[in-house]
Amino acid sequence: MLYNFIDLKLFSLSNRLLKLLSPDMARARAAKRVASRYDMLREADEDFFSRIYLYYIKERIKEVFGNSAILIFDAGCGQGRLSIPLAMDGHKVMGMDFTPSAIKKAKQYGKEKKVEIEFIQGDLEKDLDKIGNSKFHCIISTEVLYMIKDYKKVINKFNFLLEPGGLIFISLRPRLYYVVHKLINGYISDAHDLLINKKTYINDGFLNCLSKDEIEKIMVTSGFTQIEYKGIGIITGIIGDPQSLFAIPSAFDKKQQALLLEMELYLGNNYPENGRYIFVSGIKK
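Request: output the structure for the sequence above.
Response:
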């Protein structure tokens, strides 16, 4: 515990110094640290949230494409928590993540599940050209864009990579998430800036948050229609989330988690801005 505390302090100090020379490098370094230290396929609570994502994803894929196998690009795939289950359903999946350690684990986990997935290392802001002229039926990008400075540009690039009529899924931090987070920690002025002054970037520009209306404008401008919104984690969260004050999934047994999941799906359909993430889907015009 002491080692972890000292390690975090040293990292924070070195990153503040790096920020003076190159803010973008400091942002990338911080995001890489988070991604390399957190295995979303193995963490106890993440299976619960993956089930919510996969429920919504599979439901809309079936609505748009029926039972056909489709070509999916998982942009910011991490260790493959969504790529692998979707490949197991028979879809052809390509995954990209900018953290080498995450890609290494994704390949390992994919091999364990005996699915063929093309996992490539790359930065969504700079390296989408690595996938060449490929066109996808579906693009999924979860829990990534809120850490990307020029997230609007990336969403526009996603549109270019989709076939006409293609389906996109993205998750973003709702503005309310950080408003509540700031209030809980006593930062009233910061909460006011986020809510009333419509401040978008926090933590020196490292993270961003948006309201449903702001997301709607971005999606429409980027060429998407039939836009739908779902909430991820309305009454459940991991340590550090405001929602964790209600429930942390791993604290409950399987039967209780099933009840939580049913409540989450109900609330996610009705209160999408109230969660840890707002999960947006749309169809390319």
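The CA atoms of residues 234 and 267 lie 7 Å apart.
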